[in-house]
Amino acid sequence: MGSAAVHGANAELRGGAFPPVERAILRDGSVVHVRPIEPGDKPLLRAAFDRLGAESRYRRFLHPVKQLSERELAYFTEVDHYDHEAVLTVGPHGTEPVGVARYIRLADPKAAEVAIAVVDDWHGRGVGTLLLHKLVERARRAGIRRFRATCLADNDEVIDLLRRLGRARLDHPDPGVVELTIELPARPLPIDELRAALRAAAAGEVEVQPPRTEEQ
Number of structural domains, the chain? Predict the structure, then answer.
C-alpha cells in the first residue's frame, strides 16, 4: 500500500470512524472508559505495568520483566493507529489504568500480532473481552483479517478468549508455548453475546462455535 493510501486510511481511523472515548459497563457493574492510546499515556502505561504481578508480566512478555524502559514506553504509546494500534482501558476518572490490547501488523499485511494485558486487580471482570472486541473492530477497518498470538500453553484464559473470536489454528513452536492464528469474523459477535458464550464455555455448559469468517 502506498504512503498516500496509508495516510488516508490512518486519517479515517483517527478522524471519526470510532469515538475517541467510549464508556463501557463491565459485567460486575464497574464503569470504564476505552480509547486509543496516546503518546501522553506513558505514565499510565508505566503504572499499569507496575500493577501487574510477576506471573502476569511473565504471561504477557514470556520472560521476566522488572520494568519498562523509556524506549519501550515510547514504542508502546507512540503508535500510528493503523499498522500499530493500541486500545487502552482506564477507570471512570481516567486516571486508573485497567488494561491495554494492541495489534502490530506483520509482513503479511492482512495479519497482525495481538497481545492483551489487564492489571491484576481487574481480572475476571470482562476487561479482556471488551478490549479484544474493540481491537477487532479497528483491525478490520485497517484491512487486517487474521490475528496471531504467542502465549504460554497453560494460559487458558487468553487462549479461550482468542479462540472464541473466529476459526483458530493452534501450533506448538516451542515447549510450553502455543501460537494461535485466528481468522477474524466479518462481523464480531456482540460483546454481550461474547461474554455469555465465554461464561458458558468456562462453566462447561456449552461448546461455543466461533463466528463465521468471510472465507467460510
Answer: 1
